[in-house]
Design goal:
There is one protein chain. The protein has 263 residues and is α/β, with parallel strands linked by helices. Helix content is 39%, strand content 26%. The chain contains ten helices and eight strands. Strands 1, 2, 3, 4, 5, 6, 7 and 8 form an eight-stranded mixed sheet that branches. Strand 4, helix 6 and strand 5 form a beta-alpha-beta unit. The radius of gyration is 18 Å and the shape is globular.
C-alpha cells in the first residue's frame, strides 16, 4: 500500500473511532486517568496570562478549556467533527469564551509560522501515521522562545511485552507508542531545544477503560484473559497488570515533554 493510501486508511479509522468515543472521551467515570492528571499537565505547561495557545488533536478540548482560564486565548484543533461539537457545547455550558474550536489536520496545521506562544498536544502521537510531521508542525507554529508541550503514553523499551498490541485490540485507532527518547529526537530534529520532562506510571482499572472505547465484549474478554494469565505467570503483555481491591488493573507510562523553538 502506498504511503498516501495508508495515511488515508489511518485517517478514516481515527475519524470513525473518535466519532464513536466523543460522548465518553472525558467521562470521569470511564476515563478517570485522563481527567485526574489534567492539572498536572497544565501546571507542567506553565501557562502565562498573555499566552496565545494552540491545542492540537484536542479531542473534546479538555486541555484547551483548562488552559483558557489561565491564558489570553486558545485555539482547539481536531480532525473529528463530533469531538469538536462536544467540546464546543461543553465550553459554552462552562462559560468559557476564549476558546475557538477548529477542524484541521495535525500534520498540516492551517496556521502561519510563529503564530502561538504555547502549543500543546496530548495523546496524539501514538495515533498518527507520521509523528515526525506532527512534531515538526507543532514546532513550526510556535514562536521562538515559546513552549511546545507533548503529552503522551510512552513505551518503556527496557520492559518486556508489546503493549501496542493490546492497545490496538481495545481501540483500533491506536498506532504505536514512542519512547521518551524518540519524542525528544522528533522535537530536536524539528528545531526545538528540549527542556523539562515528567515521566510517570498510571495504574488504571481495566473494565472502564474497555467500556470507554466501546471495545466489543469478545475482544474485551480476550484482553482481560491475557492480563490474568500474565498475573498467573504467563507471558508479559507490556501492560503490567495488577489487582487493586479485587479488580483487575493495568499500567501505562505517561510522559510530559517541553521544548522551546530556537528560531
Amino acid at each position: 500500500m502506498r504511503a498516501e493510501d495508508e495515511r488515508a486508511v489511518r485517517h478514516g479509522l481515527i475519524l470513525r473511532e473518535f466519532a464513536r468515543q466523543a460522548g465518553t472521551f472525558e467521562d470521569a467515570r470511564l476515563n478517570a486517568a485522563f481527567t485526574r492528571h489534567l492539572q498536572r499537565l497544565v501546571d507542567f505547561a506553565a501557562p502565562d496570562p498573555e499566552d496565545v495557545c494552540l491545542d492540537v488533536a484536542c479531542g473534546t478540548g479538555l486541555v484547551a478549556r483548562a488552559l483558557a482560564v489561565r491564558t489570553r486565548h486558545v485555539t482547539a484543533l481536531d480532525t473529528t467533527p463530533e469531538m469538536l461539537a462536544t467540546g464546543k457545547a461543553r465550553a459554552d455550558a462552562e462559560g468559557v469564551r476564549n476558546v475557538v474550536f477548529q477542524r484541521g489536520d495535525a500534520a498540516r496545521l492551517p496556521f502561519l509560522t510563529d503564530s502561538f506562544s504555547l502549543v500543546i498536544s496530548r495523546f496524539s502521537l501514538h495515533h498518527v501515521p507520521a509523528a515526525a510531521e506532527v512534531a515538526a508542525e507543532l514546532v513550526r507554529v510556535c514562536r521562538a522562545g515559546g513552549r511546545v508541550v507533548v503529552a503522551d503514553m510512552v513505551v518503556r523499551p527496557e520492559l518486556p511485552g508489546d503493549p501496542d498490541r493490546l492497545e490496538r485490540l481495545r481501540d483500533p485507532s491506536h498506532g504505536a507508542m514512542l519512547s521518551v527518547d524518540a519524542i525528544v529526537r522528533l522535537l530536536t530534529s524539528a528545531g526545538a531545544a528540549v527542556g523539562a520532562s515528567d515521566v510517570f506510571d498510571v495504574e488504571r482499572p481495566l473494565r472502564p477503560w474497555l467500556e470507554q472505547a466501546g471495545t466489543p465484549a469478545d475482544v474485551a474478554r480476550r484482553i482481560s484473559d491475557e492480563l490474568a494469565r500474565e498475573l498467573a505467570g504467563g507471558d508479559p503483555t507490556g501492560l503490567r497488570p495488577l489487582v487493586v481491591d479485587d479488580e483487575l488493573y493495568f499500567t501505562q507510562a505517561w510522559a510530559h515533554i517541553s521544548a522551546t523553538p530556537s528560531s
